[in-house]
Every structure is written in structure tokens, then in C-alpha cells.
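Objective 1.3, modelling of assemblies. Example input:
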Amino acid sequence: MAKSHKPVVWFPFAAGGTVIAFCIPVIVVLTFMAALGHVPAGLGYEKLHAFAGNGLGKLILFGVVALSLWSSAHRLRCTCFDFGLRADTLVATLLYAAAIAGSIASAVFLLRI
Amino acid sequence: MSRNPLIREVPPTSWYFRHPRYLRYMSREITSIFIGAYCVLLVVGLQRLSAGPAAWEGFLAALKSPASVVFQFLCLVAAVYHAATWFNATQKAMPIQIGEDFVPGNLISGAHYAAWAVLSVVVLFVAGVF
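Predicted structure (C-alpha cells):
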């Protein structure tokens, strides 16, 4: 029997940390290229829309965004504490609520595609 | 009878200046600010993508603003720093024991770096960069 809610917070945090480490740098490279005016073919509307329209594509995009959001929220909570903001309950509530809201919003946007 | 407990005063907002190790820790902590902000950008991107071709083109155009270029450059530095420190930590976080011996730590971290490189190249290829 689980006696602590920590594993629930920890699993997506660790999974998210791994996803951020493996996936976010290359995704930033793609959008950075677009920002510099060399839009990669895969970021064109047709290609990306087709990718996000596919079930597996939706799952990948949702997994990356939701896990990264959750992990970032947890790390930001720790960062706030380390910088001396000790209202941990308030900070945790706000950040986790934002991560959940962002995840639900991502799912809704993906389902519309 | 009871002595006063030892209480070391730790300044809550400036403790990390006391040792370079703490500064390195905090420099990694700060990357979460950029990663978190970038995640918000990704959610906005999904919204624009779902809103149709014109909205998506507008999103790509907005990415080209100078502020966005600077922001994304900082995100790239933060993401790579986060990834490198994460992979360096794997050998401490999940040591692998075979029989009596532990697998060398650098092998574990090295395998993560190799997987990272392969995955990044595959994503770039699928995205049509080359």
C-alpha cells in the first residue's frame, strides 16, 4: 500500500527529466532554425499537421509536452525554494496546477487536429 | 541537563555563494526556468497548429522576432546543459552491477550520450533538416 503521494509526483518527474534531456534540445534546434529563417521541412504546416493528425504522432507530442511540463513544474518548485521562496505549498499548488492545465490544453489541441 | 541545540544560520537567499559546488547546482536549477518557459511555447505552438494554416504561419513568423531568437538561443544552451548534467548524473543515479563488479560509470553516461546523439540525428532527419 502506498503511504505517500511522492511516487505519483516522482514518476512523471523522472520520466520528464529523461524526456527533456533526450528530446528538448533537438526540438529547440528545430524551432531555433525556424527563428533564424531556415524553417525545417518538417515544421511546414502540411507535414506537421499530418504528423500530429496521426495517432502515434499525437501520443508522442502529448508525451513530450506533458512530461516536460510536469518535470519543469517540479524543478521550478525546487528552484523557488532554493532561491529562498519558502511558501512551498502555494508555489507547488500553482506550478502543478499550471502543468496540469497545460497538459489538458495540449491534449485538447491535439485532439482538434 | 539539555544543551542548546546547534543551529547554523543559513541565509535562505544567498547560501549558494558559499561554495562553487552550490553555484554549479544553482546554475543547473536555473535551466528549469527556460525549459518551463519553452514548454509553454510548445503548448502555444500546438494551439496555433490546431487553428489552421494561417495561424501556424503567424506562429512561425512570430518565432523570428529578435526577442524570440534570443530566448530560443538561451533555451538551447539551457537544454543542452540540462541534458549533459542529466547524463553525467545517470552513472550515480543508476549504477549497474554485474556479478561482483560495477559497470564503469563512464560507460553508463557514454551510452546515454550515444543514444542522445542517435535520437537527435533521427529527429533532425525525420524533420527534413538533411
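Chain A is about 80% helix and 0% strand.
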